[in-house]
Amino acid sequence: MRFNDTTVFVTGGGSGIGRESARRFAREGATVVAADIDADGAAETVEQIAESDVAGTAESVELDVTDAEAVQDAVDATVEAHGLDVMVNNAGISHTSGPMEEVSLTDRDRVFGVNAMGVWNGCRAAIPHLKEQGSGNIVNTASLAGVIGQPWSSAYAFTKGGVAKFTRSIAGELGRYGVRANAVCPGFTDTPMVQGGLEDHEDPEAARDSLESQYALKRIGEPEEIAGAIAFLASDDASFVTGHELVVDGGYSAL
Ligand code: NAI
């Protein structure tokens, strides 16, 4: 198993891609900390892992990634209890779809706070430990929106492009310490974030059909498929991969 004797901290671990990543890491032997502002969601992830017959274990922590001090405390507590090998900065939010100039400043700040500063806070908390240890890695969840852009989601795309380039930058800083950093860039994935967006349409089924038709595979992704990519980047299978933006988009960007 790839993650025996490995501790993985996953933000946004209470839903969607974060939950499936936590489950995947635990299945492959890891000790997982599922951190989320939604304490019930994180607890549910832990319960699902406990109920499944897997080699790893999990615990949950209620955490707002925009609170730098709280992130530092949660990461330090993990280091103290289990050590830390993999930091997955995955928590993220979207905003109401619309023209750039109509995105409220409140929405802009909310999205920047979670998607950009949340990733910054997670890296800032984990890096000193990983450097001192001389091993381990970081996986940040960016988005296809941060690679090719996403009209009507300008603030979101802005943060995700930033996450991707920030990740490359820290990879350059960390390599000499034996620490890797990569970004995963998913296309649309069937999680509560996307389901909520589709439900806002007048005809959610037609909206889903239209979305899926734009993918080479004629469907959107499953959270398990993104979790598989995150686990790959975090594993020794990717030991020579760092500073990479791994697009996982069912061929959307190939069309
Ligand atoms: P989701 O909405 O299912 O899960 C996001 C989780 O982040 C939730 O559990 C939520 O409570 C948590 N969260 C939100 N704000 C937080 C905060 N301040 N502190 C801690 N946790 C917080 O969404 P999904 O789809 O699983 O998204 C995960 C990541 O993947 C996000 O960064 C998202 O931007 C990214 N992504 C998602 C895509 C999709 O199509 N679903 C596509 C590309 C990227």
TrEMBL record:
The keyword Isomerase does not apply. Keywords: Oxidoreductase. It comes from the Archaea. Its EC number is 1.1.1.47. Pfam families: adh_short_C2 (PF13561). Belongs to the short-chain dehydrogenases/reductases (SDR) family. This is Glucose 1-dehydrogenase. The lineage of its organism: Archaea, Methanobacteriati, Methanobacteriota, Stenosarchaea group, Halobacteria.
